[in-house]
Specification:
The protein is of the alpha/beta class. Helix content is 42%, strand content 16%. Strands 8, 9, 10, 11, 12, 14 and 16 form a 7-stranded mixed beta sheet that branches. It has a 5-stranded parallel beta sheet with strand order 5-4-3-6-7, sandwiched between helices. A two-stranded antiparallel ribbon has the order 1-2. α8 packs antiparallel against α9 and α9 runs parallel beside α15.
Length: 368
């Protein structure tokens, strides 16, 4: 009996020590998305967000992400007010969080007054001249800066950046669970494509369509990479990775099999409205209007109703796995019949999201 008691006592102490080791130990040195070594003295309790969109990432690993904010940028609130409204409904104190910029500029005076212990910037901010100035200023005042990247090469970088956030914020268990979830779904798409190497359809991905002008086509970077993962072919692959303006002659000559538009809620920047808080019928009706313009109406994709729409800001958040699954479902339904982005969103909301995400994040002109 004594030996048995000693065994269980030892097992308990071992389990307790393992649990303790699971906690992040500070000071902590990490390598961020730009390869910068950053030392964080203590667990962050007052964070500055250079882009408000990174609140979405934190909300997937922290049950009360607003509680650790000292200040944030207004870009997510301005571009996607419905997401902000959902956060405000659950966390009313978000209204009291100081605004430190608009996602492009940062108010150094506001940042200094908030006594923050960490700043998180997006890669597309940190790589600008203003971003570099902000990093230098914050670090001189004793605020470490970590850069995360959910935009460039998202399919390869998102999981690692979630793990980075988990380590920095002492939420490793939650972050690793999301990263594993993400990687498993990307692998499923890649494995199916490897089993079916025949080329998929040709695709035009058009950012913020407007019947008065044509057209900004995604290249192979950003969300454009989500075309390639399905084994499909981007008609704008010869453009720079970020894409660029193309004329009607280019589109008519390519005559794509599938057309995908990106936009934001309320038709900001576009006649097409899609995203958080948007009713599916509104999204479908505005998408139909967008492709009724003479520039698009006669291409193969529109005539055959292979027309789809997507929330543009998937290119800024780790929810981008939903975009990858939507592309797979649309572009090659023959091999991706079992992939269901609606089911994946439901699981994200149930397992990870501090604030559930709802609305028409993706839509097809032909309802199912």
């Amino acid at each position: 009996m004594t030996r048995l008691l000693a065994f269980f006592t030892a097992a308990f102490l071992l389990a307790a020590s393992l649990a303790a080791r699971a906690e992040v130990q500070y000071p902590l040195t990490v390598t961020d998305a730009l390869g910068r070594e950053v030392t964080i003295p203590a667990e962050p309790k007052a964070i500055l967000l250079g882009s408000g969109f990174n609140l979405v990432a934190i909300s997937l690993i922290h049950p009360d992400p607003v509680s650790i904010l000292a200040g944030w940028a207004s870009d997510m609130k301005g571009d996607n007010p419905e997401i902000f409204a959902r956060f405000k409904e659950k966390f009313p104190k978000i209204e009291d969080v100081a605004i430190i910029g608009d996602g492009i500029t940062v108010s150094f005076e506001a940042a200094l007054s908030l006594k923050a212990d960490l700043a998180i910037l997006a890669n597309w901010q940190a790589e600008t001249e203003l971003g570099k100035q902000a990093i230098g200023y914050l670090e001189q005042t004793g605020v470490p800066v970590v850069v995360v990247d959910f935009n460039s090469d998202a399919l390869n970088n998102t999981a690692g950046n979630m793990r980075l956030l988990g380590k920095v914020l002492n939420r490793e268990e939650q972050a690793n669970a999301f990263a594993d979830f993400y990687e498993a779904r990307v692998k499923r798409i890649r494995d199916l494509v490897a089993e079916h190497p025949e080329p998929g359809p040709t695709v035009l991905m058009d950012a913020f369509p407007n019947p008065e002008k044509c057209c900004y086509a995604y290249g192979t970077g950003g969300l454009g990479a989500f075309i390639a993962i399905t084994g499909s072919r981007n008609i704008a692959e010869s453009l720079p990775p970020q894409g660029g303006l193309v004329n009607s002659e280019f589109i008519v000559a390519a005559n794509p099999d599938v057309y995908i538009a990106t936009a934001s809620p309320g038709g900001t920047y576009s006649t097409f409205s899609v995203g958080p808080g948007v009713d599916p019928e509104e999204a479908r009706a505005t998408l139909k209007r967008a492709v009724s313009a003479p520039i698009l109406a006669d291409i193969k994709a529109v005539k055959e109703e292979r027309v789809h729409g997507l929330w543009n800001f998937f290119n800024a958040v780790p929810l981008n796995i939903l975009a990858a699954e939507a592309f797979a479902h649309w572009l090659r339904p023959d091999i991706f019949a079992d992939i269901d982005p609606d089911a994946t969103l439901k699981e994200i909301n149930e397992r990870f999201a501090a604030v559930p995400f709802d609305g028409a994040y993706w839509i097809s002109l032909k309802a199912n």
